[in-house]
Amino acid sequence: MTEFSLRPNDDHLQIQSWIHEFAVDVMRPVAHEWDEREEFPWPVVQEAARNGLYSFDFAANASMDPTGLTYPIAAEELFWGDAGMGLSIFGSGLAATGIAGTGTPEQVAEWAPQCFGTADDVKLGAFCVSEPDAGSDVSSLRTRAVYDQATGEWVLNGTKAWITNGGIADIHVVVAAVDPELRGRGQASFVVPPGTKGLSMGQKYKKHGIRASHTAEVVLDEVRVPGHCLLGGKEKLDAKLARAREAGHSGQKQPAMSTFEMTRPTVAAQAVGIARAAFEYSLEYAKERTTFGKSIAMHQAIGFKLADMAMEIDAARLLVWRAAWLSRNGGLSRGEGSMSKLKAGEVAVWVTEQAIQILGGYGYTREYPVERWHRDAKIYTIFEGTSEIQRLVIARALTGLRVE
Ligand SMILES: Cc1cc2nc3c(=O)[nH]c(=O)nc-3n(C[C@H](O)[C@H](O)[C@H](O)COP(=O)(O)OP(=O)(O)OC[C@H]3O[C@@H](n4cnc5c(N)ncnc54)[C@H](O)[C@@H]3O)c2cc1C
Fold it and tell me: Can you give the residue ranges of the Acyl-CoA dehydrogenase/oxidase N-terminal domain (predicted)?
């Protein structure tokens, strides 16, 4: 087991400064523009691919760090640059993680690199779980996967909602019900390869924040994929279904409440990055802005606000690092991943609101970035499990009871 340390090692520091430079030089100058355009920021993602940040190699190396800290450190720095563009760069990693989570080594080797493409030919991945009637309650997915014995293919039908990179991705990883009666335990994940007939983009959502990130419906209409696109393989699925039928409905876990426990620290770190951006900006502003003959930072009301903002951000980061380390070293047991996501999401919303308050009227205008950071922060109490769902996960882990 790797020692837990609050001191980033040389590799962490190098990655941190490399991404910070990218955030300062490439992201910050165009963050406002892409937020206003509400379009996928291709030039920024292509630049990230050219310098190696957007690549399968980076994602694979980061996920193998024995301390677990590379991803949170990278995410905080990237999302300090901009959250909408940050998610455009990190979004494909969700699909790759979905493949790595249930795929065989051969499937991971075949499909995960295709979620990123190459520096000259950038590709995207999308991870499609949520549906119009199944967000938190992923055990009630309606998208069906039916096996066609005659051709050895799987046939997928349904509509996915709120999908990051949905419909513009090259690789879609789709979670579907194989046996709806078994609910969460009757589901399987499938890779839908590029250019597969029947997969199309539905509506593209116009959002409150992270507007440079593409979010859309994915419609699956008689989508046929070869047998080897079932992640984990048919034998493993059949055995899982047989076990689930034997056990009946007793002790059934909702996958939404446990599967993402290991990826939550990275999502939480994104929220810490947004909060830190807003804190740093409002700190500088408070030192320069004067009212009643002194800088507003010298008014106790503002000074105390800054103190609380710094303390909350540090508290969130400590929870994130703890959870990241535990998740890499096999020690998650008390809902620590959810604690980090819950705390960081709520801190980001609160800190960015305080930042608007510190900037006063200027903070409320689009001329200054704090209102954008506030809009961006809000998603962190909603996606990858809402704040309420995180509390359920933590309460269940602590009590061992089915808290509802
Ligand atoms: C910008 C964006 C990007 C996204 N990207 C993806 C993606 O790439 N892939 C993907 O699969 N999904 C994605 N999602 C979907 C996201 O994960 C869901 O929106 C989220 O899980 C919440 O589901 P819902 O919207 O159906 O809300 P609901 O589940 O309907 O929840 C509504 C409210 O009820 C509360 N609630 C629900 N159940 C309970 C309960 N048991 N106890 C207490 N309170 C409860 C919730 O906390 C929430 O406040 C994205 C969403 C957004 C907005």
Answer: 10-114
Tens of pLDDT, residue by residue over 149-171, are: 999 999 999 999 999 999 999 99
Q: Tell me how far apart the terminal alpha carbons of the chain are, to the nearest angstrom.
A: 35
Q: Residues of the chain whose pLDDT is less than 50?
A: 251, 254-258
Beta strands in 205-327 (DSSP E): 215-226, 290-291, 294-295
* Length in residues, the chain: 404
- Catalytic, 21? Answer no
- Map out the domains of the chain as residue ranges: 8-120, 123-231, 253-397
Q: In angstroms, what is the span from residue 386 Cα to ligand 1's centroid? A: 6
Distance CA 170, CA 45 (A): 15
Q: Give the pLDDT of residue 310.
A: 98
CB 199 within 8 A of CB 154: no
pLDDT for position 262? 74
253-397, what's its fold?
Butyryl-CoA Dehydrogenase, subunit A; domain 3 (1.20.140)
pLDDT tens, position by position, 263-290:
899 999 999 999 999 999 999 999 999 9
> Among the options 39, 47, 384, 404, which is catalytic?
384
d(CA 263, CA 191): 20
Ligand 1 atom nearest to 385, measured from its CA = 21
CATH no. for 123-231? 2.40.110.10
Cα separation values, 338 from 97, 210, 251, 283, 342, Å:
18, 22, 21, 29, 6
pLDDT of residue 249: 55
* CATH number, span 8-120: 1.10.540.10
Q: How far is CA 41 from the centre of its chain?
A: 17
